[in-house]
Amino acid sequence: MARSTSVKKGLRGPLFFSFSKPIILITFKNAQNSRLLCSNFAPRYSWVVFFFVLVITASLSLGSSYSEWSKQTKDFRTNAELLEVLLNNRIKNAVDMLHSFVGLINGSEHIEAKEFEVFADIVIAREDSIVGVSLNFAVSGDDIPRFERETQKSYPNNVFQVKERGIDGALLPVSPRSQHIVVTFLSPLKGNEAALGYDVYSQSDRRFALDQAISAKQVYPTAPIKMVQNSDGVLLFLPFFHNTTGAFLGVATAAIGLESLTDTIFQRGLLPNTDLYLVDLHEGVHEPILIAKSESANLPLNELLARYKADDFNHAVCLDIMVGAKKWRLFQISESYFFKQPWIVQFILVCGFLVTGLFGWFLLIVGSHAAEVESKVQLRTKDLRLANESLKASELEQSKAKEEEANRAKSEFLANMSHEIRTPLNGVIGCLSLLMSTKLEAEQAHLAKLSQHSAESLLDIINDILDLSKIEMGNLVLEKHAFELQDLIEEVTHLFVLKAEEKGIVLNSPATPIPELSLIGDRLRLKQVLVNLDG
């Protein structure tokens, strides 16, 4: 039996992740602590753990959603297959009942109306979807009078006449044709007397079903019709033939009430958020016909077929229902991604919400506390650093002050010592000047002059020490006076003559005479430079 299934795959539907509130609170803390959280959130690895839990929760949600979707897809098809079996069994029961009537005909030389009625009552009692049954014998137009006389014997209280419907729908005596298929025996007869003697072959839609049944020698249903009782149903035609010649004798007919055939099955087997349609596609011969549908089904037939072909349903299954040589299609569709309440998915989502939410609150509390502690530590560290810098600056200032004090003391000491030394040295220089003013021999005068120059040089050294003190105190001032360069050179040379002789060194003034050159500057400082170079 051919079957086709269409289930649209994919994961739809909202999945509400439970991390939104903790993230918002962690990200948008109040103004007092937002800077603290943004700059000092700790421990930082907690974020990794949080997002790991987040990913696990999302994965479990998606996994459980897909698992539930797969399970419901399987249940959806299983339910459709169960309905298919139930419908096929109900129809098979009806077909088997028709075969029992054919067996009755083949086993009896002559059938009486009473015999048929008893047998039919037993059949109808066994299958509640069968509203009525009949034996419709084939009669040629020429044989109608004889057929009416013979059949009338079975209905002494009724007038048996072969008839058909006119243009206005009224029952009229039939116009003889090559073949008529006449309702001969009918059960239940009460309330259906008008159908007795009716030529079903005279009606075009039933003629098509009869021709198909005779051609296939199998059961063939009509399209849905309004039966005599004004209820929806179909007629099942089962042709029977002569055992020896194989000539067509007539059809056993069962009137099937669609309400009793499908409603019980549809109500019992209908899933939540699901619709059922039973369709006769006619396989391209005629337009598709809706046989039956569930109470909530409201799609037009063309839209149903188009959407099923386009795979536009979340769940859709199409199965074949065989009615003899005819094939109906059972469509079970659902617009919902989960046609049943997905309790497992909701349970996992709730658990994920609780776990992720609690963990988010935990991170918020622990992170805030850790951030506050870290901020205090950084604040204390900053205070210590500032204190250390202040201490170092204070120590540096104290060291500088002590050094300046020491330099000042040294300078004062040198200045005092220089003054103390200069006093006797000035006396020596003065005595040498007095000595040189007396009558001395040339050698004595020369030695006295050298002594005077040496004493003056020593005085210059002492002055240099005073100048050093001035330099350290930033008070040294260069003087500007005119002096002769030649005199300065000769004076420096005379200072080192004796020392050069002691070392066996010949000290000569420049070979060429120094031109008489008058300079303006600090004669003492230049002399100090020359003495330092020669010394």
From TrEMBL:
Leader sequence residues: none
One function term, GO molecular function aspect: phosphorelay sensor kinase activity
Keywords (A to Z) from UniProt: ATP-binding, Coiled coil, Kinase, Membrane, Nucleotide-binding, Phosphoprotein, Transferase, Transmembrane, Transmembrane helix, Two-component regulatory system
Top-rank taxon, per record: Bacteria
TM spans (from-to): 45-67, 234-258, 343-366
Chief location of this protein within or outside the cell: membrane
PROSITE patterns noted in UniProt: CHASE, HIS_KIN
Bilayer topology annotation: Multi-pass membrane protein
Coiled coil: 384-412
GO cellular component, one term: endomembrane system
Gene3D superfamilies cross-referenced by the UniProt entry: 1.10.287.130, CHASE domain, Histidine kinase-like ATPase, C-terminal domain
Pfam families: CHASE, HisKA
Catalytic activity, as annotated: ATP + protein L-histidine = ADP + protein N-phospho-L-histidine
EC number(s) from the headed UniProt entry: 2.7.13.3
Record-linked CDD domains: HisKA
InterPro entries listed in its UniProt record: 2C_system_His_kinase, CHASE_dom, CHASE_sf, HATPase_C_sf, His_kinase_dom, HisK_dim/P_dom, HisK_dim/P_sf
Localisation per UniProt entry: Endomembrane system
Stretches assigned to the CHASE domain: 107-265
Boundaries of every Histidine kinase domain copy: 416-535
Name of this chain's protein: histidine kinase
Organism: Marinomonas primoryensis
